Amino acid sequence: MPPGGYTVFIVEDDQSVRDALGLLLGLKGYPVAMFADAESLLSAYQPAWRGCLLIDIRMPGMDGLALQKRLLEMGSVLPAVVMTGHGDVSSAREAFRANAVDFLEKPIDHERLIGAIEEAFSRQAATGARERQQSEFNNLLQNLTPREREVMDLVVVGRHNREIAETLGISARTVEVHKARMMTKLGVAGVPDLVRLSLSGQNAGPAPVAR
User: Fold this and answer.
1) Are 19 and 115 members of one domain?
2) Structurally, how many domains does the chain consist of?
3) Using one digit for the tens of pLDDT, what is the confidence trace for 129-183?
4) d(C-alpha 139, C-alpha 121), whole Å
5) Predicted model pTM
6) What pairs with residue 82 in β-bridges?
7) Which terminus of the chain is more exposed, N or C, with fewer CB under 10 A?
8) Contact 81, 98 (CB under 8 A)
9) Is residue 161 part of a domain?
């Protein structure tokens, strides 16, 4: 069963296939939304959508690969399961580069389909957890003093205490104090965690260096 609020967004131009997939997934407890073409999904798309895409690769108008790429350009984090009746290596490679979880050939193996959807939901959940963690981290950044933020920005680019001290015109001991306070406020256990969190989101740019 999917997490609450997760939906399988089916994009398939063949109505019989679309209806069969919708029925199969509905009977297994998956909420579904069905679209006859890529353009219809793009018209309805909302950034708040959660779940996964189930996309036919060959459709009139915009094909499945183009749809994947367009959604990525729009900032979508929805993972995709791609379906095709004409599988080939180059198409599969393009699909995986565009955030595909699996590349399924028709007729679709139901067990593999369910497995791919569950994997897609797991990826979506992990993305959501990272987004929440990053949001919390960005909020905690507001608690830093300007000097602590300066020290953080230099730490995450790999500067050592002595280099930071020279850059900021303070002693290495003072750098250690600012670093310890900064890491306590941010709730990070060490420099690797600090670097991972600071680089995983779009935090504000480096604070100006005070003299």
Assistant:
1) yes
2) 2
3) 677 777 788 888 889 999 999 999 999 888 999 999 999 999 999 999 999 999 9
4) 27
5) 0.64
6) 55, 103
7) C
8) no
9) yes
